[in-house]
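Recall the central idea of this unit: under ordinary conditions, the amino acid sequence of a chain determines the structure it adopts. In this exercise we apply that idea directly, starting from the sequence alone.
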Amino acid sequence: MDPRLVDVTALRDATLREGRDVPGVTFSPDERVEIASALAAAGVDEAEVVAPAHVGDDVPIAAQIREATPGLLLSGLVYANRPAWREDLERSADVLHRIDLLMPLSARRPPHDVAEKTAMLEAALSYGVGRWASVVGAGLPHAFQVEPDISVDIATRAAAAGAARVTLYDTNGGADPDRVGALVSQVVAAIDVPVYFHGHDDLGLATANSWAAVRAGARGLDVTVNSLGDRAGNASLEQLVVLLQLSGWATSVDPGALPALSALVERLSGIAVSPLSPVVGEFAFTHRSPAHLDVPGQFEAFSPGLIGTESRLV
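Accordingly, the structure predicted from this sequence is:
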């Protein structure tokens, strides 16, 4: 197994997948290469560059990204519940370092029977594991919208079928830190492969839920630059890099690269960063009271020097 799959705080950036689900956002092939290059330069572990609904279109661009960023691990998603999953796997295998087979756990998404979902995922994993150089994992959308026993059982069966990692998706952003911590703990205890967490920000809890997942034993987190993603967005790369570092959890990402990376994605996506955004917002180190500057540590969670700037304003 790739040793970096057991990095305690591995960060898988999904900006180039989730970001394209934001209304009005389209990244050209050259822009995708530019963003991927910036992610690599910042020290990001892995970039998710192939969407499960666009495998045929995304794989050729992923090949361009791989050529331009040889040190960046590239990954993508394939729906194991779609008739063309074999073809999607085969298209992806020569380009991506890691492929995750998705099986939506919601009874409202086909197949509707839990046993059938499990059998389909196991069959796809059996087909893919060991067949190519790519590392094959399993992803479980709606993991927090079904009974925990269902998520734990399917995660256990996926690991037994050879999945190199299992990702738990808070697909509708409706989970809270207690629920995330509880389920991640159960899955971590049940399987011997790394557990990842994918959070959405519909209730403003993506960062908190991701932090709860790490504290419960998750080895990796899905993040996006500027929280760019479907609906209310995803867990923020910049927030989690700083939070993890301040809490003593090392990551491979250079915090000093965050402002420039944020500005690049803001420019190419056309989605403005709120001045109130934590870490990279314009007002993050702006104070109304001059007295704050006498003891800034009493009014700021971290020094601006951590992200490469000494800019404080009154």
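The CA atoms of residues 209 and 215 lie 10 Å apart.
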